[in-house]
What we know:
Helices cover 63% and strands 2% of the residues. The chain has 14 helices and four strands. The strands form two sheets. It has a two-stranded antiparallel ribbon with strand order 1-2. Strands 3-4 form a two-stranded parallel sheet.
Amino acid sequence: MATPKFSKSTITFHQDLKQRVGAYFKETNLPRSGNRPLYLKAGRMVLSFISVYTHLIFFTPHWLIALAECLVLGALTAFIGFNVMHDGAHGSFSDKPWINKMAGLSINFLGANVFMWKTKHNVVHHSYTNVDGVDDDLNARPFLRLSPSQRKFRIHRFQHYYFIFTYSLLYLYWVFFTDYKKYVTKRVGMVPIQKMKLSDHISFWSFKAIHLVLFVAIPVFMLGWSQWLPGFLVYSLFAGLLLTTVFQLAHSLEETAFPVPAPATNSLEDEWMIHQIRTTANFATGYKLLTWFLGGLNYQVEHHLFPKISHIHYPAISRIIRQACKEYDITYLEHKRLRMAFLSHFRHLRILGTA
């Protein structure tokens, strides 16, 4: 199966919107990358992670406090992913490439691999959002049915009850299985990964070994298996739950589209930019503290349209995009509250499991 093609633009929306956003940065004289407050936030999150890790492993408190710190460590893992790695991998964290590379490498220390992530996320997910068979983010088979075009199994009747548990497994599955699967098969789903250089192979195996030392060998040596395993599971499951939920609330909803390529031409109905708007939704953008922690990933529409712009600019360019969508009669999807987005996702799963 070849990757589908997008329809050519028959309206000026794409060009017009790019010009409007470009004019904003020209008028404000702002760089499209991050700024000092973002770097300070990133530094605080990384230092907090190191501090909590050190206290847990080398100054282990009472087990109740230790489990609470495991939850904090899981949250910090997700927040570093949202705020540091994500922008770095997209090249928008800084205007200096080497800083972006370092920011992207933060995911390697946390157990995953930035090389594989760039193919899965930057190339595949951002190009073919919600296209079943191509967008690997939709592939949760056989446990979950996330798209109407996917095969339904009897277990899916209950997926709106057990999806939280499935989401919590993502981090463990990602770190200990899917990265290796991509490495061996040399593809993300149906899409081949870029040919790896020797340095990429060395980086892959070196960081996997570093992660095992930091999160398995040292804790087991210091605490023993009986104390390490519960803590590691609490940490990993909570990180997985946060990471998965944030991305699912942006794409797997009642309101979002799941386009299917035309069989005869293998082409999609919309041009790329309109495709992104139809398959993506924002949530709770009025809550600044949530936006701060999520690295602007509640502004998913803005991120999918302009992934090379740092998330610190999303609130500003959101107003530009909303106005353009209004003028071109394009529906801009958004849930004002986190609860509303979560309920929409819940209903989406229930419908796909029972319909």
